[in-house]
Amino acid sequence: MIEFKNVSKKYGEDFAVEDVNFKVEEGEFFVIIGPSGCGKTTTLKMINRLIPLTEGYIYFKEQPISEFPLYEMRWDIGYVLQQIALFPHMTIRENIAQVPEMKGWKNKDIDARVDELLEMVGLEPGKFRDRLPGELSGGQKQRVGVIRALAADPPVILMDEPFSALDPISRESLQDDLIELQKKIKKTVVFVTHDIQEALKMGDRICLLNKGRVEQIGTPEAFLTHPENDFVSDFIGDVDGYMMKRATAADVVKTLPAMEEGQTGEVPEVPHEADINTLFKYFSTHDRVTIVGDGARRSLSREELFKYLSGSESGDVR
Ligand SMILES: Nc1ncnc2c1ncn2[C@@H]1O[C@H](COP(=O)(O)OP(=O)(O)O)[C@@H](O)[C@H]1O
Ligand SMILES: [Mg+2]
């Protein structure tokens, strides 16, 4: 869907992005991560031509991006920023309706779409449609920012640290919503973050940048089990520690509730002494498993495993 071939961006003599190569598949959630100033935003903005590249090629739907009219790029590629810039004097409906209106949709189709999108992110249309942005909380504005990018149903969405300005609770709930949403709508998403936990939780694949260059591209599993160099392992943190301490499925689920007697769990069922590598193997083919042992059964999702490994709910290892 999107391909970078030897792409560089220079400002004067300095590379902001240097010789970057990757291919984002259709329907993939691709995360670009790295420290501040490593070239994440520049990479993202080159995709929809907000920033021109210096060297190399970027392909969109197998065609060089230079061959698309600019308006088509902007319509086919939704864009979500860190600080959502909603138009303050326009209602939520008017804000969401911008691209559909430019594309000449009928009013009744726009109204239906706006309500559908508001419902999708848990904002009651009757209550929120006619409000002004100033009447929404930060998390609600961010939700509107996400659905505004989805309004005209673009095949690709670019997101630049969309949740980083939020408090941890709104942030987690928006991450969870976006994961659920993505399961339904299966867009091609390029998502920028500097937060490794967010990257591991959200990404089908992750691309780690350092000073404009790619350090590693791969699945969360690959990052955790096979970091390619010291920069990568340092960036991920102490996940290796969990392997060294021989963490088991029982450790991972110990804070999760046990299922009721007679409740049926997801297959496969995994014994609680299974180690982390064994769990990865199950999660490469399933989104959820049931951990069985000590007379209890606990349901574990892929996201919960990564949350545990990236340290947010461990306490004792970090
Ligand atoms: N307009 C610009 N002029 C000069 N240097 C820039 C410009 N925009 C970004 N840079 C530099 O390019 C590098 C990458 O920036 P950016 O892509 O914004 O990083 P990130 O989003 O990862 O924090 C940084 O060193 C930044 O200072
Ligand atoms: Mg940035």
From TrEMBL:
Gene3D superfamilies: P-loop containing nucleotide triphosphate hydrolases (3.40.50.300)
Record field: catalytic activity: a quaternary ammonium(out) + ATP + H2O = a quaternary ammonium(in) + ADP + phosphate + H(+)
SUPFAM superfamilies: P-loop containing nucleoside triphosphate hydrolases
ABC transporter domain mapped to chain residues: 2-236
Pfam families: ABC_tran
SMART domains: AAA (SM00382)
EC number(s) given by UniProt: 7.6.2.9
UniProt key word ATP-binding: yes
Database matches in PROSITE patterns: ABC_TRANSPORTER_1, ABC_TRANSPORTER_2
Keyword line: ATP-binding, Nucleotide-binding, Transport
Molecular-function GO terms, alphabetical: ABC-type quaternary ammonium compound transporting activity; ATP binding; ATP hydrolysis activity
Signal sequence residues: none
Entry keyword annotation includes Lipid metabolism: no
Domain of life: Bacteria
Enzyme class, UniProt record, top EC level: translocase
Family: Belongs to the ABC transporter superfamily.
Subunit text: The complex is composed of two ATP-binding proteins (OpuCA), two transmembrane proteins (OpuCB and OpuCD) and a solute-binding protein (OpuCC).
PANTHER family membership: OSMOPROTECTANT IMPORT ATP-BINDING PROTEIN OSMV
This protein's name: Carnitine transport ATP-binding protein OpuCA
Source organism: Lacicoccus alkaliphilus DSM 16010
Lineage of the organism: Bacteria, Bacillati, Bacillota, Bacilli, Bacillales
